[in-house]
Amino acid sequence: MKVHVHTTASNYDVRVLRDGADPTVVWEANGLAGEMHETPSNSYETGCGWPVSFTVPVESCWQPGFYLIILSMQFEGRTYEREGFFVVRRHMPAGRPAYALVLTTSTLVAYNDWGGANHYRGVDVPPHADSPAPRLSTMRPIARGLLRQPPGAPRASNPDTPGPNFIPRHPAYEWAHTHGYSRHASDAFWATYERPFVVWAEKHGYELDYLTQHDLHDDPDCLSGYSCAILVGHDEYWTAEMRDRIDDFVDQGGHVARFAGNFLWQVRLEENGTRQICYKDPGLDPMFDIDPAKTTTAWDAPFIDRPGAATMGLTGLGGVYNRFGATTPRSSGGYTVYRPNHWTLEATDLYYGDVFGGAPICVAAFELDSVDYTFRKGLPYPTGSDGAPTNLDIVAMAPAVAGEIDKWKGAVPIGAPIGEFSHVTAAMFGDAMPDRFQGEFYGAGMMATFERGKGSVFNAGTTEWVNGLIHEDPFTQKITHNVLRRFGSRNGD
């Protein structure tokens, strides 16, 4: 494993550990000579171009898992640390466990703002516009906080229920600014999402193998031998090839356990997978005039002709926000049960109308997925107008809205202004805006299941499901066990 380092320190130490319920150091090196290197001003797009500084000798005996590379250096009596990561895969299908955790590396790339920009902000074109960068390199460090955070760091969802005439807050962003972390430290990837799930799973005896979304993109056989592919947290960005692998896996009898939310954007990979492309506004993507189906925008755009719900059962455009800033600030924060007899709720003692995972845990919060739906005799059903599977079982629901309405006339920071959602849908549909987005649009979050081909999909429909595991909510834990035990069965029982 080749590691590239730029530092002003004269020397630094390295330790490599397999992270999880029992973090274990597997390799160390001390007193390595530090070197500074020229870095392009647009390194977020081009990569850094630094030379190799040292090599980690990955041993064949190392277990499959997520490995942190932690660099430590001393400056004026203080210790500073920065980190990178790599994944050790089990390459041979023989002996693979039932479960493969697919790490959300495309969403990591999208939110990583090291070098000054990401798919959300940082590019001043025109000046002070803070525009998103459509082209991002993987050949750069990862911003502080996406891989490691101290215990108790705030999450994107708000656990506190405000009183009348409140001023919205974004605790995660405020904490990150105060403590010198990336603004997006709690928006994506390992520290906030996958790691807490891995800690919980390992403590409960689940053996996991590890893949990345980039493995899905590159290797059509990477899911071979597994019964269940697991997605956790925030898996917002996907290539068509990544979706192909998931669809093929399920069609052939595999199962997807998605404890995640915000399935939304199609992206492309270039330069041997080292550069991610996402213009979001289809009119800006050069591919739109060449091959519209490969345009980087939301999956539900009509010219892509591949609704997101066809793969995951739910879609990010059906939500999206709950308990985030001024979005549904006083909702329960949990899921309301509508199908108490569904197999996912077996032995939970949950009844129709019960709420689980509510505030301050908030399992149904931050960003949620849903589909267009209707009610019949007190039960929710998909309308199918957005490509949702006809056999989708909606088990539980929560309210969600498309963004924050600025009632404070610019005096208060807004994390997800409603105008961003309106801009996305206008760019996708133009004058042919679907009825479900017209007028006063309100979305939802859903926990749902469906069958596809020989396999099946469970979709928690929320980025914050893992918070129920962190806080040992008995209902969230039991549902998670029900899904994993059913989907981990080699014979599909």
TrEMBL record:
Q: Which organism is it from?
A: Novosphingobium pentaromativorans US6-1
Q: What is this protein called?
A: N,N-dimethylformamidase beta subunit-like C-terminal domain-containing protein
| Pfam families for the chain | DMFA2_C
- Report TM segments: none
**Which InterPro entries does the record associate with it?**
Class_I_gatase-like, DMFA2_C
Region feature (Disordered): 147-169
Which stretches make up the N,N-dimethylformamidase beta subunit-like C-terminal domain? Answer: 19-470
